[in-house]
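ok trying again, last paste got cut off:
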Amino acid sequence: MQFTLVLAFYVLMGIAVAVGEFLADDEQATGERWFRVASAVFFWPIHLPFLLKPRESESVPADAFDHTRRPSASPADKMSKAIAQVEVELDRALKSLDGWAENILSDERERLTELRSAWKLQAARIRELDLLLQEPAFADSDDDEEPGFINERSRHSEQARQQNIERLAQVRRQLYDDLMGTLAWVRELVTMIHLAKYTGAPASRAEELITQIAAAVEGLSEVTDWQENTLVGTPG
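nice, full thing came through this time. structure:
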């Protein structure tokens, strides 16, 4: 009697698993599908783990229900890629100084760190200006829309406003040109470091090149000063 109950339970479980196999995948060929269903009735302990395994299309990411998760970052822009490329090349050049001219690194480490920060800061300022200049408030106005409000004073103020917007655009161009120019200059100096090392140049040559790279941060600071001075308007 007990054996009969166990057998009945076994068969019922096999039928349940077979039904699951039948409903699980309708993309298989008909013959293969029915073979899996039939074998599941008798060998359901083998089929059950595969049946219970979540399919790839049905799997749920671990953070799918995390409402505090921020959206994925947007792809890096041209400036970010350029900065990352130069930093990789610069790091490789600095590592090559080991055993040759590594003493210069201790002297210029602070300025080199400052230079890397200055690149990222300048790129951030450029992005801020891009967003600012895209705002509707900085678009050209149409004086014909409200002719009743146009007078000499308002016309003068609008002209001054447009000039300020153009100066902002000039600042943006200057910052961008200077950033990309500085990055290109550092890349050139990096290749000169490798060239000096493999042509038997003295360590003093590497020290000179590293000093020039570190000094590039001063050029970025000068452009920052130019930006601030340029934006100082004359009260009208």
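cool. Residues 78-230 form one domain. Residues 55-75, 231-236 have pLDDT under 50 and may be disordered.
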